TrEMBL record:
One Pfam family in the UniProt entry: RRP7
Domain (Ribosomal RNA-processing protein 7 C-terminal): residue spans on this chain: 148-265
GO terms classed as biological process: ribosomal small subunit assembly; rRNA processing
Region ranges (Disordered): 199-219
Coiled coil: none
Gene3D superfamilies: 3.30.70.330, 6.10.250.1770
Superkingdom of the organism of origin: Eukaryota
Cellular component annotations (GO), alphabetically ordered: CURI complex; UTP-C complex
Origin species: Ramazzottius varieornatus
MF-aspect GO terms: nucleic acid binding
Source lineage: Eukaryota, Metazoa, Ecdysozoa, Tardigrada, Eutardigrada
Similarity comment: family membership: Belongs to the RRP7 family.
Record-given protein name: Ribosomal RNA-processing protein 7 C-terminal domain-containing protein
Length: 265
């Protein structure tokens, strides 16, 4: 798979040398977020390797535009958000064996790194004095102490989101108005009534096909009513026959009693 091995260790005092498996990104299709000439794929990512730690490690070879994680090599670009408060809302859950995508600012930075990793090299340092990586309980305590967003920042982000949402809704309503009265591929015409209040739009679909469906439904109802009439008439006739037979049986019993031939026991 043409992977190179990048040697690294956690900090200067570490004796354990670990490996990242890296290669230049090869894309089946073009990606604006992962340009092929500036993107590096990194495998064998440990849980405590954060985006900031990896950026600090690779920045010695050139400026880094972005570092983000994916679940596998074929994953699509994750949604990008500028929000620090809601940055994880649309992000897919990451697996333990995730991979990292490192995007250099220029192709020269990637070429410099590939030249370095192709030759014999000393282990790179992940956690430095300038960018300390916290692990275990220290990392959890740091997350616990991390302050919650202020109400001012939270309100600002929500207002910006709702403003963008209202803009999209207004654009959608304008598009509906423009397409008003134009039949689609199946001949259906969408008739739209927009209320005074936003969000009260009601839609009713009508066409020759719809009118035909209504006529067919009315015809079927009339036929069903005719069948109901037949059933009702049949029940009345059946009840009349039962009453007649009952009267005939009563007369036979009376005649047998009169002739003393009737023996009930």
């Amino acid at each position: 798979m043409d992977f190179h091995v990048l040697l690294w260790k956690f900090d200067e005092s570490s004796t354990a040398i670990r490996q990242f498996f890296v290669r230049k990104k090869r894309l089946a299709s073009k990606s604006a977020r992962k340009p092929e000439d500036r993107t590096l794929t990194v495998l064998n990512i440990l849980p405590y390797c954060t985006e900031a730690a990896l950026e600090n490690l690779f920045t010695s070879f050139g400026k880094i535009d972005e570092v983000f994680f994916q679940n596998d090599l074929t994953s699509e670009d994750p949604p990008k958000t500028e929000s620090d408060i809601f940055r994880w809302v649309d992000q897919p859950p990451l697996q333990v064996d995730k991979i990292a995508i490192v995007v250099f600012h220029s192709s020269k930075g990637l070429e410099k790194f590939l030249k370095f990793v192709s030759a014999k090299h000393d282990p790179q340092i992940l956690s430095t004095e300038a960018s300390r990586v916290k692990t275990g309980i220290a990392a959890w305590m740091d997350q616990k102490k991390r302050p919650l967003p202020s109400l001012v920042d939270l309100k600002r982000e929500i207002d910006e989101y709702m403003e963008a949402y209202d803009t999209r809704q207004e654009a959608e309503q304008q598009k509906v108005k423009q397409n008003l009265g134009e039949p689609d591929e199946d001949g259906w015409v969408t008739v739209t009534r927009v209320g005074k209040k936003r969000g009260t739009r009601q839609e009713k679909v009508t066409s020759e096909a719809a009118e035909s469906a209504v006529k067919k439904k009315n015809s079927e109802k009339e036929l069903q009513d005719f069948y109901k009439f037949q059933v009702r008439e049949g029940k009345v006739k059946q009840l009349t026959d039962l009453r007649r037979r009952f009267e005939e049986d009563k007369q036979k019993v009376a005649q047998m009693k009169a002739s003393r031939k009737f023996k009930p026991y």
